[in-house]
Fold:
Amino acid sequence: MICVSIGRTRHKMMILEHRALADQGAELVELRLDYLSRLPDLKRLIDERPTPVVVTCRRKQDRGRWRWQEDARLTLLRTAIVSGVDYVDLEDDIAGSVPRFGDTKRIVSHHNFEETPDDLEERHAAMAKLDPDIIKIVTMANSPSDCARMLELVAASEVPTLGFCMGEFGLPSRLLCGKYGAPFTYATFDGERVMAPGQLPFSQMKDLYRYDQIGEQTQVFAVLGDPIGHSLSPLLHNKAFEHHNVDAVYLPIRIPRDSFRESLEDLDWLGIRGYSVTIPHKKAAYEFADEPDGSVEKIGAANTLFKTADGLWHATNTDSKAAIDSLKAALPEGVSLRGKNTIVLGAGGAARAIVYGLLEEGAFVTIANRTNSKAETLAGELGCQFVRWEHRGKDYRDILVNCTPVGMYPDMDETPFPQNWMSENILVFDTVYNPENTLLIKQARERGCRTVSGIEMFARQAAEQFEKFTGIAPDLEHLRSTVRKTISPVNYES
Ligand code: NAP
Structure:
């Protein structure tokens, strides 16, 4: 169950939001009485409540907004209990002085906004002595392992425990606490009004992560990166799980630079079955893998880690295959990449994977990169040609591939390759996928060239990962349309 927190300065707005949430299917709502600008009129808020409620009134010392005396707050909490509210939230230092009465369930809570302390278990054991129906323990996660520790505590607790971590590192625990027995998790009314660091909007919890479907048996997958907040992979994979009726959830997990192995070892307890890996961890993923495949060995980077029945971490690089499949799909029937004269712009991770794939297919590849020395090094490592950046318009005949971010939102009026250098009737592949129709793609079409967009590659690399994770070949068109909907022009403004 998801408990949605609402905190507004006016009673009227609180009541309206509560009704709106009930209409959206919320089953439990937390009324943050400390947000009200006047002394709370509890009766007005709860008499015709459209859902069960948790009554909470936080002091300033707990990052709440209560501006009156502590006595008045305690009276309010006692009144809530006598009025028969469904749950009342009592901080652990006052829980002992507010007695149980009637059917109201007591949530004994503790917050630590700085860290997940070493004495988490001791704190939890002390709270268990305060006559709780539910223990709520919420701490700041400063690393992925804090989440794992918190979830282990939730799983081991005899008293139902709402345990999760705040902050970006804490997100997995907010989404997985129910899997380990937490009676509910918290969400916010919308993204504008977040009441604790890392809180997700109700709609995302419900529709993207399908929190209420996550159970003991639900398999967990994740994307690892730093930063990770803007990754589209959670959207793509979660929508695909829903589309294909797979009991699984896919989370974003921020893994700090230089702590890849250590973080994955700490997360081991969660039994995660597969990871997508993005910047800056693709090399570390290769080094972490027990069984890297041939593409990973040659590219020196992996974007996918997955466990099979042997219990080992296998690694592959779906970027390479996705790019090659995208190009092949755009070639006329019966035409292959063998012998195709191709220029690749860029010498970063994407270029490395794509050049490797092209060479495997027998294409002739030339690399050009803004920093010429990197093009030379990559060409030397993979065994192909390079050309100086300023000469990238010369000497190519069949295919142009952009593996730089030039043209990506918000710099959509830029192109890595001037239109007047472009030959007619070549194949132009821009790996940039936001926007789908980059300036490079538009100008190539004006020249009569065939084009391949970054969305094609993005959808295909996710499809390949999905198949490695679940054994199911996903509906590619569904993946494409999921990405397109998300990066439609409307979203450029947000
Ligand atoms: P990366 O490792 O950081 O490499 C970036 C490359 O772009 C470097 O070669 C860099 O040149 C070059 N570059 C950066 N800014 C430039 C500029 N203003 N002008 C000219 N060259 C510039 O990144 P990556 O992982 O290879 O990703 C590159 C792009 O590929 C991403 O931005 C993304 O749009 C795309 N991509 C798409 C997919 C997909 O599924 N569609 C997947 C992966 C990547 P220097 O060496 O001179 O810095």
Observations:
- The chain has 17 helices and 20 strands.
